[in-house]
């Protein structure tokens, strides 16, 4: 197999911060090559250099045996390089089909809307993705946007395909389809880079693996067949991974959160909530499993006071929950949303401001204006240390954080101070192993402080590992919760699909 890409001793700094300190990477035609590393290791930056989003400060870049340097992403695309981005590059106010035509009409040779629609329908069928071409992107759920981002790059016909965490928000079945297609493309002679934190996918779908740590390559194109999940994890962190704290034995506590036959209207392309009943006691984790888009986003919105209930009741400590987000927060609710950049963080604002904003709630309006920079910087410094947010200073805008580090900032904000209810929607999405363990330990620690935790996730493994009781969400309904000891995993899986 000949070389498709060679990157050698690549360096890249952003201001005073070095993201790459001499990274190497080689890619062969016909292979799926996994690129691994902890959050902030430099994976996205290295691939952004290959795909023309950034230029390297130093180092060698060869594509197809020739020296290459792309001035912009269009130049890289012309050379056959396509990247499925971790932070999606989609145009919000446009529809699905408009985005596809904008991004790939020229490369795919579509003459008209009909040709584009047909190509889209064929690929969607192959992948088992259900996307309506007329949907507006900014009204779509994050898992649907991920599907569009994947289709966009595939339809543009890249010969070198870079997938930056393509499956983080997809269900098992969808992820298998996307990775299966990556394999097929490699078998047909193309070259695929797969960035992922899911070691099972690395072992199951890649031929070779490269591991980065702190801007450098520590394992250079090793055969995947010789690796185990443990050896990969060790190479990434450079030390023994953290051991997960065992589940605390559940002590029955007071009921803190209760929904009684709560209904709400659907979001733009979602399903509404249909008479959801649940209760969560202090000190327990109630896991809500389900295929994304079955009302999970609406449930989160209803709980935090963005979406009005059309029927039914929500009780906090046996009193009716007050309306509105501000009042809900003051009533002790904290939330980690699935769409951290869309709903959780202000990308343009500094880390300090992102952390400070919720603390201004409840203060008299005139007091909200007197915020000291020193105080905000202090908050940010504390969060950076405690949550190991890499690659940032207090004044850094949140949008410059790597995927996993943005999630850590979100967690630092929501875990601050006193609260009694925590809603966590896919809280470990995009996190590396060490960070996943630390989030899981934090959820358990919140439990130990008698917080009522609602864990909503598409990752059934995570739900089974953390929850005390499990319920399944489907088409806006919620099944009866069952104690974890009595749950039959196969049946939960079937419930997820049947009701879908
Ligand atoms: N445009 C930018 N400006 C400033 N710093 C940046 C920029 N892009 C990346 N960085 C920094 O470079 C480092 C590497 O980031 P990168 O996004 O490549 O990490 P990653 O390995 O993809 O991590 P993750 O698994 O969290 O996605 C991080 O410290 C990040 O904060
Ligand atoms: Mg990244």
Short description:
Helix content is 35%, strand content 25%. It is α/β, with parallel strands linked by helices and 500 residues long. Helix 6 links the parallel strand 7 and strand 8 (191-195).
What can you tell me about this protein's structure?
The model has no long low-confidence stretch (mean pLDDT 88). 46% of the residues are buried. The protein is of the alpha/beta class and 500 residues long. It has 17 helices and 21 strands. The radius of gyration is 23 Å and the shape is globular. It has 2 domains: 3-237, P-loop containing nucleotide triphosphate hydrolases (Rossmann fold, 3-Layer(aba) Sandwich); 255-498, Rossmann fold (3-Layer(aba) Sandwich), CATH 3.40.50. Helix 3 packs across helix 4 and helix 3 packs parallel to helix 5. The strands form 4 sheets. Strands 13, 16, 17, 18, 19, 20 and 21 form a 7-stranded mixed β-sheet that branches.
Features:
six-stranded mixed beta sheet; binds magnesium ion; binds adenosine-5'-triphosphate; alpha/beta; Rossmann fold; 2 domains; globular; seven-stranded mixed beta sheet; 17 helices; 500 residues
Question: Can you lay out the helices and strands and say which pair or pack?
Answer:
Blueprint: E1 3-14, E2 17-28, E3 32-37, H1 43-50, E4 58-63, E5 66-67, H2 73-78, E6 81-84, H3 96-108, H4 113-127, H5 142-155, E7 160-164, H6 172-187, E8 191-195, H7 199-205, E9 208-213, E10 216-223, H8 229-237, E11 255-264, E12 273-281, E13 285-289, H9 296-304, E14 309-316, E15 319-320, H10 325-330, E16 333-336, H11 340-344, H12 351-356, H13 373-386, H14 403-414, E17 421-425, H15 433-448, E18 452-456, H16 460-466, E19 469-474, E20 477-478, E21 482-483, H17 489-498
The structure holds adenosine-5'-triphosphate (ATP) and magnesium ion.
